[in-house]
Amino acid sequence: LTAMAGPSMDPAADSTAQQDSLFSMMDVFLISLITGLFTYWFFFRKKKEEVPDLPKMQTVVAPVRDSSFIEKMKKTGRNIVVFYGSQTGTAEEFANRLSKDAHRYGLRGMAADPEEYDLSDLSRLSEIDKSLAVFCMATYGEGDPTDNAQDFYDWLQEADADLSGLRYAVFGLGNKTYEHFNAMGKYVDKRLEELGAQRIFELGLGDDDGNLEEDFITWREQFWPAVCEHFGVEATGEESSIRQYELVVHTDVNMNKVYTGEMGRLKSYENQKPPFDAKNPFLAQVTENRKLNEGGERHLMHLELDISNSKIRYESGDHVAVYPANDSSLVNQIGEILGTDLDTVMSLNNLDEESNKKHPFPCPTSYRTALTYYLDITNPPRTNVLYELAQYATDTSEQEQLRKMASSAAEGKALYLSWVVEARRNILAILQDMPSLRPPIDHLCELLPRLQARYYSIASSSKVHPNSIHICAVTVEYETKTGRLNKGVATSWLRSKVPEQNGSSSLVPMYVRKSQFRLPFKPSTPVIMIGPGTGIAPFIGFIQERAWLKQQGKEVGETVLYYGCRREREDYLYREELARFQKEGVLTQLHVAFSRDQAEKVYVQHLLKKNKENVWKLVNEGMAHIYVCGDARNMARDVQNTFYEIVSEFGNMSQPQAVDYVKKLMTKGRYSLDVWS
């Protein structure tokens, strides 16, 4: 009854009941809110205080341990670490040889890529007994560090570390034809001393323009006695052959797991993914391959590589790197001479399980693939290869000859120079000329250096050709002293790349390497370009870009080209293109030296002298940028000497002042070189 009477209750009583109800609900709500906030605050605060401790330890400690060469050396009982700054593999090869040497003196060495480790740990090396750091540092370009030593170089410049407990030695790899000979080796040697480290042997300076191998051997034979004296150790005996890798032959293998020429990721050529670089090259289709010269013995060519859909970007002046393949006939002959089934699938596994380098090249693979894509079979082998191979020569006189050439004796060095280097004997020629030398093919594959990418100055502008990269190259082909015909690996291989619709035979694995060879920021700045022969390549790109800028309505400064070739009717490269650029008013001056069209040879430096007043005016008043591309040994040096003369004459300077003036232009980026030897 009461319940049924509810709706007809007095309004005042109803209102009071509602208020009571409301207050009780608010009380509950407030109490819940306060409790919730307190609970949230309590747990949140605890999380903030307690949780970070564990992740902090993980994130800080783990990577340091992973990238610590000190921890690795302690774990594996090493006391000598040999770091290498290597662009073409030679410094890495020297580092491996030095680390292998260590066992002869009761020491243990390891070769290390500075890119893979934290070099600030050098201050801790003294924690290891009889410890020593050796640096095999190549200089690249115009006094620059190699790609893998860039971080180390940056660290050295910024570091204020105390390296007083560090003992070190440096061997530099350079080329005297370049302006900044061995700059990286000299810098590392000097900077380590400044940071308090103790040099235990003098800086070695290898010269690739002379005999780099001999320079290294000479330094090495004096380096180890200095190490022995410093640490009070003695050689434990003769050099012995120690295998670094063990052979595993795969009889039952899934062919989808076998490398067929890829540089990094398995099947990367079938399933291409950007970004593309040295370890992940892009397979570019050759869309054009035409002969540039009209006559003569040489074959000069212009190739165009399609980079559509690759996301590859380049600037005029950059380099394109291509991975070539060895001539199949050379590969087959090595297989035949060693009586090997080249299609055997195998792996070479590092016997040092702690090493970061598990294989000398991508494995598993076949001997054919290794000899075609991964190993250098055309350059004369270094002395360490001859020494290791000597044990397999069954004829004692051949064995003695190989050992002698690998020795540090003057007679041995002279024999190596004449019989191997000057005769340009590659591994096949050595096997042919030494009938008793028949090494196991797996050991040969372990010893041969890696086949390196070849670099070419890009002959196009991305403003005009965003989807293609152009190459200008000359095929290398010559007869050796033994009567053999030697061919350049990359140029012969590129020559065979005939464009065809979706044909795999015209694919080129490539990537772009950035350069400092750049047009001025302001298009109105005059440029003087000097590039005889294929040295014209980057300037075709520069002129294309200046023409494009002019079409965009930009004010473009004087564009001057000094070009040289042998004969006007024979090898005048890009003649029509240059004539068109001149007609359009983009190429404001074109000076061409034909060296063999008259009795006296005429080169680009002679034309610079002829126009010296105009050259000085452009440099001094116009603030022109100077660019030199081509041969480093003669042309680049002669051109530079010509600029010294012009500056001295018109700037009223002494020879030393003129040299200083040109050096300052280089420092300011107004005199740039893209040269090779």
UniProtKB/TrEMBL annotation:
One cellular component (GO) term of this entry: cytosol
Main enzyme class: oxidoreductase
Top-level taxon: Eukaryota
SUPFAM superfamilies reported in the protein's UniProt record: Ferredoxin reductase-like, C-terminal NADP-linked domain, Flavoproteins, Riboflavin synthase domain-like
GO molecular function: flavin adenine dinucleotide binding; FMN binding; NADPH-hemoprotein reductase activity
Domain Flavodoxin-like: 80-224
Keywords (A to Z) from UniProt: Endoplasmic reticulum, FAD, Flavoprotein, FMN, Membrane, NADP, Oxidoreductase, Transmembrane, Transmembrane helix
HAMAP family named among the record's database cross-references: NCPR
Protein name: NADPH--hemoprotein reductase
